[in-house]
From TrEMBL:
Name this polypeptide is given: Uncharacterized protein
Assigned keywords, A-Z: Cell membrane, Electron transport, Heme, Iron, Membrane, Metal-binding, Transmembrane, Transmembrane helix, Transport
GO CC terms in record: cytochrome complex; plasma membrane
TM ranges: 20-45, 57-78, 98-120, 127-148, 189-210, 222-239, 325-346, 358-379, 403-431
Chief location of this protein within or outside the cell: membrane
Organism: Ciceribacter selenitireducens ATCC BAA-1503
Stretches the record annotates as Disordered: 447-468
GO molecular function terms attached to this record: electron transfer activity; heme binding; metal ion binding; oxidoreductase activity, acting on diphenols and related substances as donors, oxygen as acceptor
Subcellular location: Cell inner membrane; Cell membrane
Length: 468
């Protein structure tokens, strides 16, 4: 294995492996923190104990997911020093402060209020406890803001200069933080996190509705999740379209790879639905396509010209096959989520939202769809940026540490073993928690329990109540 792969490819595989594990936990915890804030707010407003019981149920799951997200994120900063030290040296003056701000704002906010949210209701009261829940939710959003700003700057770098030793130094912090792709990527990612959480919550609710356990709790969470799917999924599709147009403006090679356009199309480009990318021969084999639809989507004109990868140097092309298929997985799952949301609206209109077992089975099947879509979108974004780490300015080949392939391979194997053991156990524990939704309590009797043997107290019988 050491002879087949070079250090650069192994380092990329190691970072891809660790970030793929990491991203699923923040994607879940961002949405779940906001969901907890909604649940506690509804409980304070309506005084319906179902919302409080659901809050306590999801609070434990959030704590485990949050902890695994923090631990898995630490490893990536370790890799900046071991595998990507040249990148860290060159980009550190820009990226270092931004990541420091994430710790000083978001992480301190989350850490400061997390304990109160988890354990403090009886100690601080309902109002302050709700404030703590809101602060944790806000902290997750601020964390996403800083991290997406860093990554977006790497995709569309602005506001910098390069000094005499080749370092990227800040010139305009506003331009760095609010770089051209940042608003689109932040909105797209946060909505993706909300949809991911909605389908997990909906899947858990569907699971318990199918088992007919705790119908009030299961029905409440399922209804809330389906509202989120029906409302937010179409918004995400529109945001994704706007993000794609922004990417076409600033990273055209990435869009060419996503669309599978090896050739330029001066009179309107087709939308290639499926096919087998053949990068060696510069074509899509067995392509199934719709004429001129890609030009309509990207330029809003059927006959608009679109450039292809034939305008890009071969050594500057991203890996087309990976980007082509990961993009289609993301889009397909996005439309599948929209379909579930519309199906739930139809069932809600017919009054069968809690009885339609086909909807419940589909929702259960779609529970992990958000995670897969997030991973597919992340792969599209990161692989589509290749061969650069800082798009257009710093090549991946010039970013790696002077490290031997066997050393990277050894740490990659260690990561794979430890991650599957530790995070596999954590994920299994979360699934066990999800399967243990408390049962609905038995109806309360007016005057205490009825005895199962002996003489029933007269006060608890109809005759006793009426003096008969």
């Amino acid at each position: 294995m050491f002879e087949i792969f070079d250090a650069q490819l192994l380092a990329r595989l190691q970072f891809a492996f660790t970030v793929s594990f990491h991203i699923i936990f923040p994607a879940f915890s961002i949405g779940l923190a906001s969901y907890l804030a909604v649940l506690e707010g509804l409980w304070l407003w309506k005084k319906d104990k179902v919302y409080l019981e659901l809050f306590d149920f999801w609070k434990t799951i959030f704590a485990v997911a949050f902890g695994m997200g923090v631990v898995s994120g630490i490893v990536m900063s370790y890799q900046f020093g071991t595998n990507w030290s040249v990148f860290s040296d060159k980009a550190g003056p820009v990226i270092g402060p931004l990541m420091g701000y994430e710790v000083l704002t978001a992480f301190f906010l989350e850490a400061g209020f997390l304990g109160v949210m988890l354990f403090g209701r009886e100690r601080v009261g309902s109002g302050l406890h709700y404030l703590a829940t809101l602060m944790v939710a806000l902290g997750t959003l601020i964390s996403a803001t800083w991290i997406l700003s860093v990554n977006s700057w790497m995709q569309t770098p602005t506001g910098f200069a390069i000094n005499d030793v080749g370092q990227f130094v800040p010139v305009d912090w506003w331009a760095i933080v609010f770089n051209p792709s940042f608003p689109y990527r932040l909105t797209h990612m946060v909505i993706a996190a909300y949809l991911t959480t909605a389908f997990v919550v909906g899947g858990v609710g569907a699971y318990h509705l199918l088992r007919r356990t705790s119908p009030s709790r299961a029905g409440t969470m399922f209804s809330m999740a389906m509202w989120m799917a029906a409302i937010v999924a179409p918004i995400q599709i529109l945001v994704g379209d706007a993000h794609g147009l922004n990417t076409l403006e600033h990273q055209p090679a990435k869009v060419m790879a996503m669309e599978g356009h090896f050739d330029s199309h001066p009179d309107g480009a087709p939308l290639i639905l499926f096919g087998l990318p053949n990068q060696a021969e510069k074509r899509i084999d067995y392509a199934i396509q719709i004429p001129k639809l890609s030009s309509l989507i990207l330029k809003h004109d059927l006959n608009a010209p679109l450039a292809g990868l034939d305008t890009i140097d071969d050594d500057k092309e991203p890996p087309v096959a990976v980007v082509f298929w990961s993009f289609r997985v993301m889009v397909a799952l996005g439309f599948a989520m929209l379909g579930v949301g519309l199906f739930s609206l139809w069932c809600r209109w017919r009054g069968t939202l809690f009885e339609n077992r086909m909807l419940h089975r589909v929702a259960l099947l779609m529970a992990p769809a958000g995670f897969v879509a997030v991973l597919a979108g992340w792969i599209t974004t990161e692989v589509g940026r290749q061969p650069y780490t800082i798009y257009g300015h710093l090549l991946t080949a010039d970013s790696i540490s002077p490290i031997a392939a066997p050393a990277v391979a050894a740490s990659l194997i260690a990561f794979i073993i430890v991650y599957f053991l530790v995070f596999g156990a954590g994920t299994f524990y979360i699934l066990r928690l999800m399967a243990r939704l408390p049962r609905d309590p038995m109806p309360d009797l007016d005057d205490g329990p009825i005895r199962t043997s002996g003489i029933t107290p007269a006060a608890q019988t109809e005759g006793g109540k009426h003096g008969l």
